[in-house]
Design a protein that fits this description.
By secondary structure, this protein is mainly alpha-helical. The chain has two domains: 34 residues, no CATH class; 88 residues. 45% of the residues lie in helices and 9% in strands. Strands 1-2-3 form a three-stranded antiparallel β-sheet. The two termini are 31 Å apart.
Length: 125
């Protein structure tokens, strides 16, 4: 499945077809409570860091009217227009948080472990 959507407090997958998987918020919360405390702490810290970055850049504007007016009866845009370096730093921070979140989720789901005995199926070939 490549997509999902939320409806009525549930996560449905795939998003646009008949649902094959439905997970409730209660199930997600129960799973989160079953995680190791260190993993939960990392997830909470990453969520807080991501929210702080969103709040920090919420007022940024990328319109072309930072210096000139869009029309004759108005002035230049008054919102903050970041520099290219600020944009690059922001996107680097977002990518770092996303990568760290993926790593923590992989550990939480034990996806890094090698499957035991999987290749033995092909040993006789």
């Amino acid at each position: 499945m490549t997509g999902w959507e939320t409806r009525n407090g549930k996560v449905h997958a795939p998003g646009r077809c008949e649902s094959r998987v439905v997970i409730t918020k209660a199930q997600i919360n129960a799973y989160a409570r079953s995680l190791r405390e260190s993993v939960r702490a990392e997830l909470v810290a990453l969520r807080a860091e991501a929210r702080a970055e969103v709040n920090r850049t919420a007022g940024w504007c990328h319109c072309p009217w930072s210096q000139t007016a869009p029309n004759a009866h108005s002035g230049p845009c008054q919102r903050y227009h970041p520099t290219d370096d600020e944009d690059d730093a922001h996107y680097a921070t977002v990518r770092r948080i996303d990568y760290a979140l993926d790593e923590v989720l992989w550990r939480a789901l034990d996806l890094h472990r090698e499957p035991v005995g999987q290749l033995e199926l092909f040993a006789a070939l």
